[in-house]
Amino acid sequence: MAETVKLRSPDGEVREVEATVESLSPLMARGWVQVEEDGGEDAGEHS
Amino acid sequence: MPANIRETKIGFGYKTQTDLQTANAAADIWSLTKTNATLAGISLVTEDDGAELGKGHEFPTQIFPSHYEVRFPIEKYLSSEIAAWVFAFGLGNRVKSGTSPAFTYTCTPQNPVTAGIELPAFSFIETIRQGASAVLDRMAVGCAVEDFTISIGSGPGRANSRITINCIGSGKLVEPSGITLPAPTAEHSLPGASAQVTINGVNYVSNRNLVSLEFGWKNNIRQGFFPGSGTQDNAAIQGRLEFGDREASLKFVARFESGSTELTKLRQQTTGTAVVSLQGALISGTDYHSMSVTFHKVGFRTAVVGDTDGIVTVEVECRPMWDETNGLLTAVAKCSQDNIGS
Fold it and tell me: According to the model, what pLDDT value does residue A36 have?
Protein backbone atom coordinates (compact mmCIF):
# COMPACT_ATOMS: atom_id res chain seq x y z
CA MET A 1 0.00 0.00 0.00
CA ALA A 2 1.33 3.42 -0.93
CA GLU A 3 2.39 5.85 1.72
CA THR A 4 0.03 8.71 2.45
CA VAL A 5 0.49 12.40 3.12
CA LYS A 6 -1.88 15.06 4.40
CA LEU A 7 -2.73 17.99 2.17
CA ARG A 8 -4.75 21.10 2.91
CA SER A 9 -6.90 22.80 0.28
CA PRO A 10 -7.03 26.58 -0.21
CA ASP A 11 -10.38 26.38 1.62
CA GLY A 12 -8.89 24.60 4.61
CA GLU A 13 -10.10 21.08 3.92
CA VAL A 14 -7.53 18.48 5.01
CA ARG A 15 -7.35 15.23 3.10
CA GLU A 16 -5.05 12.24 3.44
CA VAL A 17 -3.99 11.00 0.01
CA GLU A 18 -1.57 8.50 -1.43
CA ALA A 19 1.85 9.97 -2.14
CA THR A 20 1.71 9.17 -5.83
CA VAL A 21 1.88 11.36 -8.90
CA GLU A 22 -1.66 10.31 -9.83
CA SER A 23 -3.09 11.34 -6.46
CA LEU A 24 -1.00 14.41 -5.74
CA SER A 25 -0.91 16.13 -9.14
CA PRO A 26 -4.58 17.16 -9.38
CA LEU A 27 -4.54 18.56 -5.85
CA MET A 28 -1.18 20.33 -6.04
CA ALA A 29 -2.23 21.91 -9.33
CA ARG A 30 -5.14 23.47 -7.48
CA GLY A 31 -3.07 24.87 -4.65
CA TRP A 32 -3.26 22.16 -2.04
CA VAL A 33 -0.23 22.17 0.25
CA GLN A 34 1.26 19.61 2.58
CA VAL A 35 0.33 19.60 6.23
CA GLU A 36 2.79 18.26 8.74
CA GLU A 37 1.76 15.74 11.37
CA ASP A 38 1.51 18.42 14.05
CA GLY A 39 -1.12 20.19 11.96
CA GLY A 40 1.14 23.02 10.91
CA GLU A 41 1.52 23.92 7.26
CA ASP A 42 4.62 22.54 5.70
CA ALA A 43 7.06 24.93 4.09
CA GLY A 44 6.68 22.94 0.88
CA GLU A 45 4.94 25.72 -0.96
CA HIS A 46 6.65 29.01 -0.59
CA SER A 47 4.53 32.01 0.19
CA MET B 1 49.90 32.45 -3.66
CA PRO B 2 48.02 31.87 -6.91
CA ALA B 3 44.92 29.75 -6.60
CA ASN B 4 43.76 26.98 -8.91
CA ILE B 5 40.14 27.35 -9.96
CA ARG B 6 39.65 23.70 -8.96
CA GLU B 7 40.08 24.74 -5.35
CA THR B 8 36.64 26.32 -5.62
CA LYS B 9 34.03 24.96 -3.23
CA ILE B 10 30.37 25.81 -3.20
CA GLY B 11 27.58 25.31 -0.73
CA PHE B 12 23.97 26.36 -0.66
CA GLY B 13 20.87 26.01 1.44
CA TYR B 14 18.93 22.80 1.03
CA LYS B 15 16.24 24.37 3.19
CA THR B 16 14.51 27.58 2.24
CA GLN B 17 15.44 30.86 3.86
CA THR B 18 12.80 32.26 6.20
CA ASP B 19 12.76 35.42 4.09
CA LEU B 20 14.78 36.90 1.26
CA GLN B 21 17.21 38.83 3.47
CA THR B 22 17.84 36.20 6.16
CA ALA B 23 20.64 33.77 5.33
CA ASN B 24 20.35 30.04 5.77
CA ALA B 25 21.71 28.72 9.06
CA ALA B 26 25.02 26.87 8.78
CA ALA B 27 23.31 23.57 9.57
CA ASP B 28 21.01 24.02 6.57
CA ILE B 29 23.83 24.34 4.04
CA TRP B 30 25.09 21.46 1.98
CA SER B 31 28.13 21.34 -0.22
CA LEU B 32 27.90 19.74 -3.66
CA THR B 33 30.37 19.51 -6.49
CA LYS B 34 29.99 21.13 -9.89
CA THR B 35 31.65 20.81 -13.28
CA ASN B 36 31.80 24.41 -14.52
CA ALA B 37 34.70 26.66 -13.60
CA THR B 38 32.62 29.81 -13.78
CA LEU B 39 32.58 31.71 -10.52
CA ALA B 40 29.51 33.54 -9.33
CA GLY B 41 28.92 36.72 -11.27
CA ILE B 42 28.69 39.26 -8.46
CA SER B 43 28.81 42.74 -9.92
CA LEU B 44 28.54 46.13 -8.31
CA VAL B 45 27.12 48.09 -11.21
CA THR B 46 28.13 51.74 -11.29
CA GLU B 47 27.17 54.83 -13.21
CA ASP B 48 28.84 58.19 -13.66
CA ASP B 49 27.89 61.78 -14.19
CA GLY B 50 29.39 62.09 -17.68
CA ALA B 51 26.06 62.96 -19.32
CA GLU B 52 25.02 65.53 -16.73
CA LEU B 53 25.07 69.21 -17.58
CA GLY B 54 26.59 71.86 -15.37
CA LYS B 55 30.15 70.60 -15.25
CA GLY B 56 31.18 72.49 -18.35
CA HIS B 57 32.26 69.38 -20.25
CA GLU B 58 31.10 65.92 -21.24
CA PHE B 59 33.57 63.98 -19.11
CA PRO B 60 32.66 62.16 -15.91
CA THR B 61 33.89 63.58 -12.63
CA GLN B 62 32.25 61.09 -10.26
CA ILE B 63 31.25 57.43 -10.17
CA PHE B 64 28.17 56.30 -8.24
CA PRO B 65 27.29 52.79 -7.06
CA SER B 66 24.01 51.82 -8.72
CA HIS B 67 23.01 48.28 -7.81
CA TYR B 68 24.25 44.76 -7.29
CA GLU B 69 23.74 42.03 -9.85
CA VAL B 70 24.23 38.44 -8.77
CA ARG B 71 23.95 35.60 -11.25
CA PHE B 72 25.58 32.21 -11.16
CA PRO B 73 25.35 28.96 -13.09
CA ILE B 74 25.72 25.54 -11.52
CA GLU B 75 26.54 22.78 -13.96
CA LYS B 76 26.63 19.23 -12.67
CA TYR B 77 26.35 15.61 -13.53
CA LEU B 78 22.80 14.75 -12.64
CA SER B 79 22.25 13.19 -9.22
CA SER B 80 19.13 12.40 -7.25
CA GLU B 81 20.13 15.01 -4.67
CA ILE B 82 20.42 17.92 -7.08
CA ALA B 83 17.29 16.80 -8.91
CA ALA B 84 15.29 16.92 -5.68
CA TRP B 85 16.75 20.30 -4.81
CA VAL B 86 16.14 21.93 -8.18
CA PHE B 87 12.59 20.58 -8.41
CA ALA B 88 11.77 21.97 -4.96
CA PHE B 89 13.41 25.36 -5.43
CA GLY B 90 12.83 25.77 -9.15
CA LEU B 91 9.17 24.78 -9.26
CA GLY B 92 8.22 26.08 -5.82
CA ASN B 93 5.66 23.57 -4.56
CA ARG B 94 6.80 20.31 -3.04
CA VAL B 95 5.36 17.49 -0.97
CA LYS B 96 7.74 15.30 0.99
CA SER B 97 6.96 11.68 1.75
CA GLY B 98 8.91 8.70 2.97
CA THR B 99 11.13 8.06 5.96
CA SER B 100 14.86 7.73 6.44
CA PRO B 101 16.78 6.66 4.43
CA ALA B 102 14.50 7.26 1.43
CA PHE B 103 12.64 10.54 0.94
CA THR B 104 10.46 11.34 -2.02
CA TYR B 105 9.91 14.91 -3.16
CA THR B 106 6.92 15.46 -5.42
CA CYS B 107 7.06 18.92 -6.93
CA THR B 108 4.80 21.05 -9.11
CA PRO B 109 4.87 24.64 -10.30
CA GLN B 110 3.88 26.98 -7.51
CA ASN B 111 0.25 28.00 -7.52
CA PRO B 112 0.24 31.82 -7.65
CA VAL B 113 -3.28 32.06 -6.27
CA THR B 114 -2.56 30.24 -3.03
CA ALA B 115 1.20 30.74 -2.64
CA GLY B 116 1.95 34.02 -4.38
CA ILE B 117 4.66 34.53 -6.97
CA GLU B 118 7.76 34.78 -4.78
CA LEU B 119 10.10 31.86 -5.24
CA PRO B 120 11.75 29.94 -2.39
CA ALA B 121 15.10 31.51 -1.56
CA PHE B 122 18.43 30.05 -0.51
CA SER B 123 21.91 31.26 0.36
CA PHE B 124 24.86 30.47 -1.91
CA ILE B 125 28.41 30.27 -0.60
CA GLU B 126 31.51 30.24 -2.77
CA THR B 127 34.98 29.77 -1.35
CA ILE B 128 38.57 29.27 -2.39
CA ARG B 129 40.87 28.37 0.52
CA GLN B 130 38.30 29.26 3.12
CA GLY B 131 40.01 30.28 6.33
CA ALA B 132 42.93 32.54 7.21
CA SER B 133 44.31 32.50 3.65
CA ALA B 134 40.99 32.79 1.91
CA VAL B 135 41.09 33.83 -1.72
CA LEU B 136 37.31 33.88 -1.84
CA ASP B 137 34.81 33.43 0.96
CA ARG B 138 31.49 35.03 0.19
CA MET B 139 27.82 34.33 0.58
CA ALA B 140 25.04 35.58 -1.63
CA VAL B 141 21.89 35.80 0.47
CA GLY B 142 18.48 35.53 -1.09
CA CYS B 143 19.00 33.55 -4.28
CA ALA B 144 16.43 31.79 -6.44
CA VAL B 145 16.45 29.41 -9.39
CA GLU B 146 15.93 31.26 -12.65
CA ASP B 147 15.99 28.17 -14.84
CA PHE B 148 17.24 24.64 -15.09
CA THR B 149 17.86 22.21 -17.93
CA ILE B 150 18.38 18.46 -17.70
CA SER B 151 20.08 16.84 -20.67
CA ILE B 152 20.38 13.17 -21.52
CA GLY B 153 22.65 12.11 -24.34
CA SER B 154 24.07 9.05 -26.03
CA GLY B 155 27.42 7.54 -25.12
CA PRO B 156 29.17 6.27 -22.01
CA GLY B 157 29.98 8.25 -18.90
CA ARG B 158 28.32 10.65 -16.52
CA ALA B 159 28.50 13.43 -19.09
CA ASN B 160 25.42 11.98 -20.76
CA SER B 161 23.21 12.96 -17.88
CA ARG B 162 23.72 16.55 -16.89
CA ILE B 163 21.96 19.47 -15.30
CA THR B 164 22.52 23.18 -15.72
CA ILE B 165 20.98 25.57 -13.20
CA ASN B 166 21.02 29.35 -13.51
CA CYS B 167 20.38 31.32 -10.36
CA ILE B 168 19.79 34.94 -9.50
CA GLY B 169 20.67 36.62 -6.21
CA SER B 170 19.07 39.55 -4.47
CA GLY B 171 22.42 41.31 -4.22
CA LYS B 172 22.78 40.98 -0.47
CA LEU B 173 26.27 39.71 0.28
CA VAL B 174 28.12 38.53 3.36
CA GLU B 175 31.89 38.50 3.11
CA PRO B 176 33.49 36.53 4.67
CA SER B 177 30.56 34.18 4.66
CA GLY B 178 30.87 33.25 8.33
CA ILE B 179 29.82 29.70 7.50
CA THR B 180 32.33 26.88 7.30
CA LEU B 181 31.35 24.67 4.40
CA PRO B 182 30.57 21.09 5.36
CA ALA B 183 32.22 18.15 3.62
CA PRO B 184 30.73 17.51 0.18
CA THR B 185 27.51 15.53 0.25
CA ALA B 186 27.85 12.10 -1.32
CA GLU B 187 25.73 12.30 -4.44
CA HIS B 188 24.15 9.47 -6.38
CA SER B 189 24.29 9.59 -10.16
CA LEU B 190 21.27 9.13 -12.37
CA PRO B 191 22.87 7.77 -15.56
CA GLY B 192 21.33 8.38 -18.94
CA ALA B 193 21.54 4.67 -19.67
CA SER B 194 18.82 4.08 -17.05
CA ALA B 195 16.33 6.32 -18.84
CA GLN B 196 12.72 5.36 -19.37
CA VAL B 197 11.05 7.68 -21.85
CA THR B 198 7.51 7.59 -23.16
CA ILE B 199 6.25 10.57 -25.12
CA ASN B 200 2.89 10.97 -26.77
CA GLY B 201 2.20 7.26 -26.83
CA VAL B 202 5.63 6.05 -27.96
CA ASN B 203 8.05 4.20 -25.71
CA TYR B 204 11.36 5.48 -27.03
CA VAL B 205 13.39 3.10 -24.88
CA SER B 206 11.72 -0.12 -25.91
CA ASN B 207 12.04 0.82 -29.58
CA ARG B 208 15.70 1.78 -28.93
CA ASN B 209 15.37 4.95 -30.99
CA LEU B 210 16.12 7.74 -28.53
CA VAL B 211 19.32 9.66 -29.28
CA SER B 212 19.08 12.58 -26.85
CA LEU B 213 16.55 14.45 -24.78
CA GLU B 214 16.42 17.74 -22.96
CA PHE B 215 13.81 19.27 -20.72
CA GLY B 216 13.80 22.42 -18.69
CA TRP B 217 12.01 25.05 -16.72
CA LYS B 218 12.38 28.84 -16.69
CA ASN B 219 10.91 31.18 -14.10
CA ASN B 220 11.65 34.45 -15.94
CA ILE B 221 12.22 36.15 -12.60
CA ARG B 222 11.00 39.74 -12.44
CA GLN B 223 13.42 42.48 -11.50
CA GLY B 224 13.03 43.10 -7.76
CA PHE B 225 14.25 46.66 -7.34
CA PHE B 226 11.58 48.94 -5.89
CA PRO B 227 11.32 51.82 -3.41
CA GLY B 228 12.60 50.37 -0.17
CA SER B 229 13.99 47.17 -1.70
CA GLY B 230 17.20 47.65 0.28
CA THR B 231 20.80 48.71 -0.14
CA GLN B 232 24.27 47.37 0.36
CA ASP B 233 27.42 49.48 0.06
CA ASN B 234 25.09 52.31 -0.93
CA ALA B 235 23.93 50.30 -3.95
CA ALA B 236 20.44 48.94 -4.47
CA ILE B 237 19.62 45.29 -3.92
CA GLN B 238 16.48 43.41 -4.90
CA GLY B 239 13.77 43.03 -2.30
CA ARG B 240 11.80 40.29 -4.02
CA LEU B 241 12.45 37.48 -6.48
CA GLU B 242 9.15 36.70 -8.16
CA PHE B 243 8.51 34.52 -11.14
CA GLY B 244 7.18 36.03 -14.36
CA ASP B 245 5.67 34.06 -17.23
CA ARG B 246 6.99 30.59 -16.56
CA GLU B 247 7.95 28.19 -19.32
CA ALA B 248 8.48 24.45 -19.52
CA SER B 249 10.36 22.86 -22.40
CA LEU B 250 10.91 19.36 -23.73
CA LYS B 251 12.68 18.30 -26.89
CA PHE B 252 14.27 15.12 -28.10
CA VAL B 253 16.04 13.49 -31.03
CA ALA B 254 15.06 9.98 -32.06
CA ARG B 255 15.88 7.71 -34.95
CA PHE B 256 13.33 8.11 -37.71
CA GLU B 257 12.33 4.96 -39.53
CA SER B 258 9.44 3.45 -41.42
CA GLY B 259 6.40 3.69 -39.20
CA SER B 260 7.74 6.52 -37.05
CA THR B 261 4.80 8.68 -36.03
CA GLU B 262 6.35 12.04 -35.17
CA LEU B 263 5.45 13.83 -38.41
CA THR B 264 1.93 12.44 -38.38
CA LYS B 265 1.44 13.57 -34.80
CA LEU B 266 2.71 17.01 -35.68
CA ARG B 267 0.26 17.30 -38.58
CA GLN B 268 -2.65 15.96 -36.58
CA GLN B 269 -1.66 17.83 -33.42
CA THR B 270 -1.99 14.68 -31.37
CA THR B 271 -1.54 15.26 -27.66
CA GLY B 272 -0.57 12.90 -24.88
CA THR B 273 1.60 12.63 -21.79
CA ALA B 274 5.38 12.58 -21.65
CA VAL B 275 7.21 10.77 -18.88
CA VAL B 276 10.98 10.83 -18.45
CA SER B 277 12.52 8.76 -15.66
CA LEU B 278 16.05 7.99 -14.49
CA GLN B 279 17.21 5.59 -11.82
CA GLY B 280 20.41 5.24 -9.85
CA ALA B 281 21.69 3.14 -6.98
CA LEU B 282 19.56 1.24 -4.49
CA ILE B 283 18.80 3.16 -1.29
CA SER B 284 17.13 0.33 0.60
CA GLY B 285 14.40 -2.23 0.04
CA THR B 286 12.67 -1.25 -3.19
CA ASP B 287 13.68 2.41 -3.02
CA TYR B 288 16.19 3.68 -5.57
CA HIS B 289 17.78 7.05 -6.11
CA SER B 290 15.66 8.33 -8.95
CA MET B 291 13.84 11.14 -10.66
CA SER B 292 10.82 11.27 -12.91
CA VAL B 293 9.11 14.12 -14.69
CA THR B 294 5.58 13.82 -16.05
CA PHE B 295 4.35 16.37 -18.53
CA HIS B 296 0.62 15.87 -18.31
CA LYS B 297 -0.17 17.09 -21.82
CA VAL B 298 2.22 17.69 -24.69
CA GLY B 299 1.85 18.22 -28.40
CA PHE B 300 4.55 18.53 -31.02
CA ARG B 301 5.49 22.10 -31.89
CA THR B 302 8.04 21.12 -34.52
CA ALA B 303 9.38 17.86 -35.95
CA VAL B 304 12.27 18.07 -38.36
CA VAL B 305 13.86 15.11 -40.08
CA GLY B 306 17.63 15.23 -40.39
CA ASP B 307 20.55 13.05 -39.44
CA THR B 308 22.69 12.35 -36.43
CA ASP B 309 26.08 10.77 -37.08
CA GLY B 310 24.82 9.49 -40.41
CA ILE B 311 21.58 7.98 -39.10
CA VAL B 312 18.25 9.48 -40.12
CA THR B 313 16.66 11.12 -37.10
CA VAL B 314 13.81 13.40 -36.21
CA GLU B 315 14.25 16.36 -33.86
CA VAL B 316 11.04 17.07 -32.02
CA GLU B 317 10.24 20.08 -29.93
CA CYS B 318 7.29 19.41 -27.65
CA ARG B 319 4.92 22.03 -26.35
CA PRO B 320 4.01 21.27 -22.72
CA MET B 321 0.43 22.35 -22.10
CA TRP B 322 -1.84 22.77 -19.13
CA ASP B 323 -3.95 19.72 -18.41
CA GLU B 324 -7.26 20.62 -16.80
CA THR B 325 -6.99 17.77 -14.31
CA ASN B 326 -3.31 17.40 -13.48
CA GLY B 327 -1.81 20.78 -14.31
CA LEU B 328 1.37 21.30 -16.32
CA LEU B 329 3.90 18.88 -14.89
CA THR B 330 4.87 16.88 -11.85
CA ALA B 331 8.51 16.23 -11.00
CA VAL B 332 9.50 13.57 -8.49
CA ALA B 333 12.92 12.85 -7.02
CA LYS B 334 13.91 10.28 -4.45
CA CYS B 335 17.10 10.49 -2.40
CA SER B 336 18.40 10.09 1.15
CA GLN B 337 18.54 13.77 2.08
CA ASP B 338 15.80 14.89 4.43
CA ASN B 339 14.12 18.30 4.47
CA ILE B 340 14.99 19.54 1.02
CA GLY B 341 12.94 22.65 0.42
CA SER B 342 11.58 22.71 3.99
Answer: 74
The nearest CA of chain A is from the CA of B113 a distance in Å of: 7
d(CA B315, CA B307): 9
Q: Does B104 touch chain A (CB under 8 A)?
A: yes
CB B65 within 8 A of CB B44: yes
Which ranges of chain B have pLDDT less than 50? none
What's CA A34's distance to the chain center, in Å? 4
Q: What's the whole-number mean pLDDT along residues A6-16?
A: 95
Cut 0.90: pTM above it: yes
Look up the ipTM and state it: 0.89
Query: Chain B residue with minimal CA distance to A30?
Result: B111
- For residue A34, give the nearest of B95, B118, B330 by CB distance: B95
Taking contacts as CB-CB distances below 8 angstroms, the residues of chain B near A42 are 95-96, 342
